[in-house]
Specification:
The chain has 128 residues and is mainly beta. The chain is built from no helices and eleven strands. Strands 2, 4, 5, 6, 9, 10 and 11 form a seven-stranded mixed sheet that branches.
């Protein structure tokens, strides 16, 4: 059974850093695009970053560019989201998700509806 599970959330001060992990089970990361999404209270789920299965190309939404970094360790079947210079507006539940990649394309997308397998989420709170 294909599953992904997030971990690493918690309370962090503004300007601080946090690393989230997305561990895959039941499948190899090879051939799957992995995306990170977040949902703040009262807001829609938004895509913030993803990494393409075949090319390794990464995509970021504008609000996290230069602050967040997505990476993949295939041997550990884990995708990471390194968050730095966090701000209160980064407070949200963070989710990772997977979708089978297409070798014809070398870029992933940040549309939640395109992803098939979702984790339960991990909460990130940015507050002093």
């Amino acid at each position: 059974q294909l599953q992904v599970a997030e971990s690493g959330g918690g309370l962090v001060q503004p300007g601080g850093s946090l690393r989230l992990s997305c561990a895959a089970s039941g499948f190899s990361l090879d051939g799957y695009d992995i995306g990170w999404f977040r949902q703040a209270p009262g807001k829609e789920r938004e895509g913030i970053s993803c990494i393409s299965s075949y090319s390794g190309r990464t995509t970021y939404t504008d609000s996290v560019k230069g602050r967040f970094i997505i990476s993949r360790d295939s041997t550990k079947r884990t995708v990471y989201l390194e968050m730095s210079m966090v701000q209160p507006e980064d407070t949200a539940d963070y989710f990772c998700a997977a979708v089978s990649g297409d070798p014809r394309y070398n870029i992933c997308v940040l549309f939640p509806g395109e992803y098939d397998f979702w984790g339960q989420g991990t909460q990130v709170t940015v507050s002093s």
